[in-house]
């Protein structure tokens, strides 16, 4: 019978037909199979095998069975020769692989899994890399006739990964011979299904013993030859002529029903192990590289044979040279599978990238729309920037800069005192109850440790012309200011420009003070009329007194001094920061004030403090609106709200009260405060008392407006409005002092709150001139014994002046009320 011999290279031809790999362990087991097969030839030839295929051939002549037995004997002998040759070749390749240490296989292999019926393999046994391994089905226990000596084991079966077709079961020629001689019992269980569906999930093919064959699993002789040819192409046995036949189709194989398997518990556990291996992905669907886990598994097993190096050192046999092209084609197939896997990765990455870009676009779109909307809203209100400085100011937006600002901790338990200046010769018989403004300034300078900020109309703390002795208090304050630099205290002065006299500021600048002139006339058409001190951002003073020696000894002033009140002092420092930012040459008003200058208190959100232990709600106001930062309450609006809030009385002490524009042409009627007072006295029944100064600089037009208020007292209106004129007495020498001898106070007290400001009550002071006010509300606060609210102190101070000999009631019939 002609025998077709194939080398290991012939496996490549089979792999091109069906994209699978087979790996066979040839050590030990193959030799044992051949030897046992030779020993059992004489005994196994005479025993028939009861299978389904032979039952269908019972009608055939007996000579076909005899001819089949003769061919089997010849085939087994030839198999022994071929397997010895293959075993020698494997051993040589293993030796060369261990010497070179090179692994060329791109498909990782695992150690052979043990199964029921396996013979122990040698330690040097290594799987071939021609095909991935798959788990075999454990051999079922076989029952044998008592007169038969069984020395042969069934050859291993090969499971092939499912690639879209089903392949007929593979049987070796030895198994066929054993079947013909009756070596297998009819009680052996059959393999349930040898289709590819069972092994489709396994990425590696493994060799394991086949279960005993049941009758009927070999349909005919062509099927037997087909199985033998399949094993021969895998390098197990040389096939017969029938090995070149085409494999059985799916329909032929599936047409033969498979009987149920009868398995032992050991078989079940082996099949579970096989199923775990089957769950692994096929190699063409995974990355064609050896993972760390596989490398760890390989380290415990023997090295793989290096086919490339072995082929270069050992020439191929003549019969395998014709298969060289098929081997390259096989490698090309695997490379194509690797390229396909890489392309799938690239497409997956591109899809993820596209999803990521879509998500980024969905986020960027609303953000872009918000940004464009904000820029459009800003340009609608402020227009395009006309210069680089204006652009810089516009970029310093409140809501952008506010993210980086953090509120500093501050103190709310404050000590507050009303302070005043009493002109020489005034109230000589009754000393003042309240501390002097000069003493309060000196006290604040004594406590200064880091910084002193002063906003002022002008600086004339010394009388450099006449050397009047009453300037002593002013000189003391000036000397304390000069010593701040030597104590390491920073002095900053924001003063109105242009200055009529700059001697004091120039000398202070020579000692280290920073002086910045604020030309508010060029910006708003007004002046800096503010009188504000901030010390260490903890203490502050606010009131009517200018930085003038006369304000400390020749002018009646009222102010408020607060210590250890950093919450309110920090807010006052921001008002000073506004003046500082618009000072210097070529200054301009920003279209939008930065967040660092935003108000920390307002009429809507006042600070909750304790003044001398009494709870209070306090906030600062400023004028004009052009230099009021974000959130700052307007000074005029604050005054009007205090008047509207009164329930019982409104007491006002102010140098000037004029419902006209005082410093603009043409003169405009400005009835804002006047109308509020008329409404309070005539419609709400509030008692209104207005104390106005009379001195040589009083506007003559002010008094007719004041007399018009008195007309409201006549029936039937009978409005509760009263007006008095306050005069500071002067000697002949005192009359020579310029801008002195006047009640310069600017405060208002009601039954609910107290307001202390720095502005005279005419239009320009609220619309063009810089000024500051403070409102203290302690209504409803619990007052313990020995405590007093600021509102009650201010009420006492006003009533003292109102009832004094220096205040005279205004008559409607008077023509020359305040002669110059």
TrEMBL record:
Residue spans of biased composition, Basic and acidic residues class: 53-72, 141-150
UniProt feature coiled coil, ranges: 76-103
Region (Disordered): 1-72, 115-152, 207-325
Domain (PLD phosphodiesterase) ranges: 524-551, 739-765
Keyword field contains Glycosyltransferase: no
Any one GO molecular-function label of the UniProt entry: catalytic activity
Cited Gene3D superfamilies: Endonuclease Chain A
Alphabetic keyword roster: Coiled coil
Acidic residues: bias regions: 35-44
Family per similarity comment: Belongs to the phospholipase D family.
Protein name: Phospholipase D family, member 7
Organism in which the protein naturally occurs: Oryzias melastigma (Marine medaka)
Lineage, broadest ranks: Eukaryota, Metazoa, Chordata, Craniata, Vertebrata
């Amino acid at each position: 019978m002609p025998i077709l011999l194939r080398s290991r290279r012939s496996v490549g031809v089979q792999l091109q037909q069906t994209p699978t790999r087979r790996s066979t362990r040839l050590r030990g087991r193959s030799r044992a199979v051949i030897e046992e097969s030779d020993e059992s030839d004489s005994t196994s030839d005479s025993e028939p095998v009861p299978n389904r295929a032979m039952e269908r051939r019972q009608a055939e002549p007996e000579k076909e069975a005899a001819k089949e037995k003769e061919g089997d004997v010849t085939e087994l002998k030839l198999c022994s020769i071929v397997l010895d040759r293959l075993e020698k070749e494997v051993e040589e390749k293993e030796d060369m692989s261990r010497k070179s240490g090179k692994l060329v296989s791109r498909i990782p292999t695992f150690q052979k899994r043990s199964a029921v019926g396996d013979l122990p393999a040698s330690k040097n046994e290594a799987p071939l890399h021609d095909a991935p391994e798959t788990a075999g089905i454990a051999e079922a226990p076989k029952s044998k006739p008592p007169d038969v000596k069984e020395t042969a084991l069934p050859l291993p079966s090969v499971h092939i990964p499912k690639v879209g077709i089903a392949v007929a079961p593979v049987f070796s020629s030895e198994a066929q011979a054993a079947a013909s001689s009756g070596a297998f019992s009819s009680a052996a269980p059959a393999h349930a299904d040898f289709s590819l569906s069972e092994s489709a999930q396994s990425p590696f093919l493994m060799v394991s013993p086949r279960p005993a064959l049941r009758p009927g699993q070999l349909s005919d002789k062509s099927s037997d030859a087909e199985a033998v040819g399949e094993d021969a192409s895998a390098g197990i046995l040389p096939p017969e002529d029938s090995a070149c036949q085409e494999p059985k189709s799916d329909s032929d194989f599936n047409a033969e029903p498979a009987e149920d398997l009868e398995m032992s518990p050991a078989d079940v556990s082996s099949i579970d192990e096989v199923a775990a291996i089957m769950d692994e992905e096929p190699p063409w669907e995974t990355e064609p590289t050896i993972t760390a886990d596989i490398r760890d598994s390989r380290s415990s097993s023997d090295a793989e044979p290096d086919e490339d190096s072995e082929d270069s050192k050992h020439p191929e046999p003549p019969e395998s040279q014709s298969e060289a092209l098929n081997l390259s084609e096989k490698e090309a197939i695997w490379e194509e599978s690797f390229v396909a896997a890489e392309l799938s990765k690239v497409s997956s990455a591109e899809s993820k990238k596209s999803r990521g870009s879509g998500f980024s676009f969905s986020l960027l779109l609303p953000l872009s729309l918000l940004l464009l909307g904000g820029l459009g809203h800003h340009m609608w209100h402020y227009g395009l920037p006309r210069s680089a400085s204006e652009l810089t100011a516009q970029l310093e937006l409140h809501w952008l800069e506010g993210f980086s600002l953090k509120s500093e901790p501050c103190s709310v338990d404050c000590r507050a005192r009303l302070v005043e200046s009493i002109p020489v010769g005034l109230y000589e018989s009754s000393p003042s109850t309240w501390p002097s403004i000069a003493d309060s300034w000196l006290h604040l300078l004594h406590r200064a440790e880091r910084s002193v900020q002063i906003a002022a109309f002008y600086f004339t703390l010394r009388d450099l012309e006449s050397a009047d002795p009453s300037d002593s208090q002013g000189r003391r304050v000036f000397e304390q200011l000069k010593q701040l630099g030597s104590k390491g205290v920073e002095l900053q002065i924001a003063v109105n420009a242009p200055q009529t006299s700059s001697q004091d500021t120039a000398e202070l600048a020579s000692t280290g003070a920073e002086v910045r002139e604020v030309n508010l006339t060029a910006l708003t058409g007004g002046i800096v009329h503010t009188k504000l001190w901030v010390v260490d951002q903890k203490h502050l003073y606010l009131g009517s007194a200018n930085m003038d020696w006369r304000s400390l000894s020749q002018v009646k002033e009222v102010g408020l001094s607060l210590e250890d009140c950093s919450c309110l002092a920090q807010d006052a420092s921001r008002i000073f920061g506004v003046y500082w930012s618009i000072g210097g040459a070529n200054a301009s008003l920003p279209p939008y004030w930065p967040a660092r200058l935003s108000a920390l208190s307002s009429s809507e959100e006042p600070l909750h403090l304790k003044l001398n232990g009494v709870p209070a709600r306090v906030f600062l106001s400023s004028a004009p609106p052009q230099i009021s930062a974000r959130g700052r309450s307007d000074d005029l609006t604050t005054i009007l709200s205090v008047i509207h809030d009164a329930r019982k009385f409104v007491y006002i002490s102010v140098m000037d009260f004029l419902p006209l524009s005082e410093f603009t042409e043409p003169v405009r009627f400005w009835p804002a405060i006047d109308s509020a007072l008329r409404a309070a006295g005539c419609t709400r029944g509030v008692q209104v008392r207005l104390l106005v100064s009379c001195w040589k600089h009083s506007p003559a037009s002010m008094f007719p407006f004041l007399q018009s208020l008195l007309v409201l007292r006549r029936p039937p209106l009978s409005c509760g409005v009263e007006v008095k004129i306050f005069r500071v007495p002067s000697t002949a020498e005192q009359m020579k002092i310029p801008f002195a001898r006047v009640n310069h106070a600017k405060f208002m007290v009601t039954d609910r709150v107290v307001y202390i400001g720095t502005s005279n009550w005419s239009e320009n002071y609220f619309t063009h001139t810089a000024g500051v006010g403070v409102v203290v509300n302690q209504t409803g606060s619990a007052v313990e014994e020995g405590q007093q609210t600021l509102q009650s102190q201010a009420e006492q101070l006003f009533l003292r002046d109102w009832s004094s000999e220096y205040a005279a009631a205004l008559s409607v019939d008077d023509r020359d009320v305040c002669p110059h």
